[in-house]
């Protein structure tokens, strides 16, 4: 449709007059009265629920005679579990027995239904006041036909629905599509046994002397090998594994029943010797490995071989017969971003396998762009041959397949899955001499490099395995390692008290120029209200980036996001080290990943804004770090909550910390990056304000003031003056830290107004001069929003 620009013509005006008169004389529509239903929804463990509530209703007529049509609506629970919705009262409505049907769809996957009767009320009502204890007759007393009853009886007699979708196992026998769960262990020979019962008894049986001794060599045992092929000899060890003695051959190596490992390995190390200097090759090919000596030797652990250091390096010498390997499989646990007292454990180039030829040979790495961000890669022939874009940590099966040409390049798989590459070339044939080392071998440039973690299995093939074989092997190796009792997925570590995790870099760990000193950190100086006593852990690491933190987080802090009492809260304050060579948008993307990892694990997450910094970034245009800070903080303030954060710790709202150039004042150390002791105290005040506001008074639980004057605190999100008789003055709280917060002051007094003034002249209300208060009128409400000033100057103010 096109529009013509121009004025009204006289004819047009005359033609429009009858329509205008019709509008002017039209009757006014009456407004249906509604009642506000508001409440906080909790789960049984005391944590606020998330999700949505779908509400539907039939047509009814209110007690006042207003007709309401059939309909439905929905409401989303806030991050604090708050439900707030207005509904037309159906108490006393006709027809009799009219209910609202409320269906809860919570974010833990649960669905529940209840029925509401909403009264007429000018004040908000809680769900307990509307929840009906009587089941609607439309649900409880439905009439049915004779045919329906006959069909139901016939199905009951037959033991199955007549449509054959039988959910039961018949006594006469039937097939099942899922597992059968037994309530207990068998007590007579004819009773069925659970897998656990069988596993426990097998584990007990294999300890008997009839199975002979464990070790590199095994004598004939009393139990035959049900999986061995004709002409092979495997014997059962006390640890429940089938092992081939030296000189023997096995189709699947050392594994557990039911695995489908690809046969034909040239070497297979299960790392189950538990002692000695030899890593036994289970294939019978004699390709045993030898631990390096002294401090360079990895450490035997119960289920594998642990590499605990890269300086000094630790490794296993492998025979030169493996130089022609084309496929490498590693079942390994990579320690997540290891650190001690705020200092990351040194590992110059994280690497699973190194060459005695150094960089000219083939080296299989898991070195990412920053510490903690582990990504598989290959460095061979003096150059990067392969770089995967996928980060990982914890237990995984890594498979490297060497390519022979540009048309058949290198590949790497994580748990049988191949991810995109940023670099992909070919490496086969470049290990032209020397030998390989598992871990480090002390050869430059990997003299202070290696693996920090535990090797559970390493297999070598002279051919390229197919993707299908790699996926099958990954599953089999994972199952085999799990059968040893090793954790192959992150294990939750529950706390018996509320916990507070501090996630960040050297600012969080309170770097003093030479070391971290948590005693002076901002998180150790929090002053919290309306909250429990937390068990606090400072995870700050000097030099840490958000990219590196999120790469390891599933196996680090996220494991500790559950408690048996109270909440688990994560305060994330990082980004300055990312912004040195990444854009604000890239850094915020990493932050989003961190937020979502912690949220999915069960933590409430609050993120901090970046402080002033005196350096320059290496990104395009080499902007100052303060320019980077301003853009990054803007993304946090505008989008962090949409990304899943529960709240924001706006450290930079304090101009002594966040204004451009603030890094030159006494609240920073001489490096113009790290806050001084007084700077850490200012950060603590801002974080306390933000947390106290989030967990403070609200619409459901307002703070009733009983006397004026009164100075509000950060936790006074909603004030009620119902306890006051007379005029007086309220002083607003410090607005530093809880940027975006909304404060509401309700004055139900019928005859007295109350004055409101800001804390100081730097935190004005709508720009009104300090000393000129605003008024909350009688029977009125005043709403004020905490608004941060532009980052260049920092600070905050109030807007009505």
TrEMBL record:
Pfam families: Lipase_GDSL_2. It comes from the Bacteria. InterPro entries: ConA-like_dom_sf, GDSL_Rv0518-like, SGNH_hydro, SGNH_hydro_sf. One of its GO terms (molecular function) is hydrolase activity, acting on ester bonds. Gene3D superfamilies: 2.60.120.200, SGNH hydrolase (3.40.50.1110). Residues 503-682 form the SGNH hydrolase-type esterase domain. CDD domains: SGNH_hydrolase. This is Lysophospholipase L1-like esterase. It comes from Edaphobacter modestus. The lineage of its organism: Bacteria, Pseudomonadati, Acidobacteriota, Terriglobia, Terriglobales.
């Amino acid at each position: 449709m096109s529009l013509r620009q121009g004025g009204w013509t006289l004819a047009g005006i005359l033609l429009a007059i009858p329509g205008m008169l019709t509008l002017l004389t039209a009757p006014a529509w009456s407004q249906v009265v509604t009642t506000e239903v508001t409440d906080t929804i909790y789960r049984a463990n005391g944590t606020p629920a998330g999700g949505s509530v779908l509400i539907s209703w039939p047509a009814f007529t209110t007690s006042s005679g207003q007709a309401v049509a059939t309909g439905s609506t929905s409401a989303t629970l806030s991050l604090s579990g708050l439900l707030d919705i207005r509904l037309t009262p159906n108490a006393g409505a006709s027809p009799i027995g009219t209910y609202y049907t409320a269906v809860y769809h919570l974010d833990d996957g649960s669905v529940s239904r209840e029925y509401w009767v909403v009264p007429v009320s000018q004040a908000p009502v809680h769900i307990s006041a509307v929840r009906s204890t009587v089941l609607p007759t439309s649900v409880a007393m439905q009439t049915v036909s004779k045919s329906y009853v006959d069909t139901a009886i016939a199905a009951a007699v037959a033991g199955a629905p007549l449509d054959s979708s039988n959910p039961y196992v018949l006594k006469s026998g039937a097939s099942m599509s899922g597992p059968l769960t037994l309530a207990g262990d068998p007590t007579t020979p004819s009773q069925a046994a659970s897998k656990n019962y069988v596993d426990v008894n097998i584990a007990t049986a294999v300890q008997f002397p009839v199975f002979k001794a464990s070790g590199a060599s095994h004598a004939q045992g009393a139990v035959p090998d049900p999986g061995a092929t004709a002409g092979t000899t495997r014997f059962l060890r006390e640890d429940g594994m089938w092992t081939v003695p030296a000189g023997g051959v096995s189709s699947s190596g050392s594994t557990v029943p039911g695995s489908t490992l690809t046969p034909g390995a040239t070497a297979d190390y299960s790392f189950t010797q538990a002692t000695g200097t030899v890593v036994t090759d289970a294939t019978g090919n004699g390709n045993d490995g030898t631990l390096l000596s002294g401090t360079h030797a990895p450490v035997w652990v119960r289920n594998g071989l642990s590499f605990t250091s890269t300086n000094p390096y630790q490794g296993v010498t492998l025979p030169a017969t493996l130089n022609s390997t084309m496929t490498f499989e590693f079942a390994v646990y990579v320690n997540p971003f290891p650190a001690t007292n705020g200092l990351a454990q040194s590992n110059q180039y994280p690497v699973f396998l190194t060459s005695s030829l150094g960089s000219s040979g083939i080296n299989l790495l898991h070195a990412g762009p920053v510490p903690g961000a582990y990504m598989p890669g290959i460095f061979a022939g003096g150059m990067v041959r392969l770089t995967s874009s996928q980060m990982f940590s914890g237990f995984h099966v890594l498979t490297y397949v060497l390519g022979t040409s540009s048309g058949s390049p290198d590949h790497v798989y994580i748990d049988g899955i191949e991810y995109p590459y940023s670099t992909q070339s070919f490496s086969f044939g470049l290990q032209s001499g020397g030998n390989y080392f598992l871990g480090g071998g002390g050869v430059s440039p990997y003299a202070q490099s290696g693996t920090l973690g535990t090797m559970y299995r390493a297999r070598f093939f002279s051919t390229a395995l197919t993707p299908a074989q790699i996926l099958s092997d990954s599953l089999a190796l994972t199952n085999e390692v799990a059968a040893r009792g090793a954790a192959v997925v992150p294990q939750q570590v529950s706390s018996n008290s509320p916990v507070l995790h501090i996630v960040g870099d050297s600012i969080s760990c309170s770097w003093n120029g030479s070391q971290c000193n948590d005693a002076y950190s901002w998180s150790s100086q929090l002053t919290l209200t309306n909250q429990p006593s937390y068990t606090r852990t400072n995870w700050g690491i000097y030099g840490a980036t958000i990219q590196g933190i999120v790469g390891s987080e599933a196996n680090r802090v996220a494991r500790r996001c559950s408690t048996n009492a109270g909440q688990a809260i994560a305060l994330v304050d990082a980004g300055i080290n990312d912004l040195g060579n990444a854009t604000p948008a890239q850094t915020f993307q990493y932050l989003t990943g961190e937020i979502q990892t912690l949220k999915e694990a069960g933590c409430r997450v609050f993120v901090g804004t970046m402080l002033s910094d005196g350096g320059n970034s290496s990104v395009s245009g080499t902007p100052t770090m303060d320019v980077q800070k301003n853009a990054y903080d803007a993304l946090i303030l505008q989008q962090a909550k949409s990304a899943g954060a529960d709240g924001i710790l706006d450290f930079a709202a304090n101009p002594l910390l966040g204004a451009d150039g603030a890094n030159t004042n006494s609240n920073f150390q001489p490096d113009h990056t790290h806050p001084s002791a007084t700077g850490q105290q200012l950060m603590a005040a801002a974080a306390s304000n933000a947390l106290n506001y989030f967990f403070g008074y609200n619409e459901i639980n307002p703070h009733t003031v009983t006397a004026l004057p009164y100075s509000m605190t950060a936790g006074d999100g909603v004030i009620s003056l119902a306890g006051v008789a007379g005029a007086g003055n309220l002083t607003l709280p410090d607005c530093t830290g809880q940027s975006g917060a909304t404060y509401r002051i309700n004055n139900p007094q019928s005859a007295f107004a109350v004055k409101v003034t800001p804390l100081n002249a730097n935190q004005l209300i709508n720009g009104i001069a300090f000393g000129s208060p605003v008024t909350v009128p009688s029977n009125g409400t005043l709403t004020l929003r905490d608004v941060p000033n532009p980052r260049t100057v920092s600070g905050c103010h109030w807007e009505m």
